């Protein structure tokens, strides 16, 4: 599955911008561990420039160019982005697969979801127009009340490597629909498709500064973004350890944060279960996206009645379920992105984490 890796710069104020320190990071193919390209490495200086661009975009023409424009106006851009994403689906899926290590088929589904997400929030953006200044009934006629919906401002969006473009879209699309301007900082382990989102935004004519995309290391780019006094909110998806750091930085100025952190989710196996289905769904839940997903069902909790049953029955039932699971598990094969099966994990550190 040979595909050229685009060489991009940072995306700031509607144009490609070289990092101040001119640093770049290697792109590693997780299946072969070969270096297949590189991405720009932003630092605090680049964050400063991006935040300034986002604040200018927010206030441009007293907000009428974006923040206080109609939802329908913003929806036009979101739908245009969705169309471009769909047009480039095959290319983007291949880039996603080679960058983060998931099967090509799964990557293609993700790109479909990306386009659908932009369409969904385009609809919601249009819906904001009819809800603006909606009256609120009060028991006293002396007072009048209505709901005024305003964007929170400039938002920093920090996303993980297991769903690079889709996770980025889950944060970018609602932010833009609401009239916010944004700085997206994807994981340094998988940033290719997020930089291609920048190219799409250029092609559809998204106003400069509305979306800025900075690639780079967490401590050098993510941390300055989380702690920046002119970023009004941070949305972060990733590890609990990093989430603690994000919340700590935001707390210094009482900045709102949204955190989606890792977990260790169980799947429940009841006494009357169909063993074939239990094995199938346990396998799916545990190894979907190579098991590198916060909602992976990576633990099995077996119904207490099975444990309290007579020893011969319990042993037989337990062994049966174990054997069924092992048998189904043996059907999975480690493979390359263009074939069915599981892929290599992204790195040794991610393997240990999950």
TrEMBL record:
The protein's organism comes out as Nyssa sinensis
| BP GO annotations | cellular detoxification of aldehyde
Give UniProt keywords alphabetically.
NAD, Oxidoreductase
Q: Which family does it belong to?
A: Belongs to the aldehyde dehydrogenase family.
* A Pfam family the protein falls into: Aldedh
Protein name, please? Aldehyde dehydrogenase domain-containing protein
| Molecular-function annotations in GO | aminobutyraldehyde dehydrogenase (NAD+) activity
Q: Which residues form the Aldehyde dehydrogenase domain?
A: 16-304
Q: Does the keyword Oxidoreductase apply?
A: yes
The family database entries (InterPro entries) matched by this protein are listed as:
Ald_DH/histidinol_DH, Ald_DH_C, Ald_DH_CS_CYS, Ald_DH_CS_GLU, Ald_DH_N, Aldehyde_DH_dom
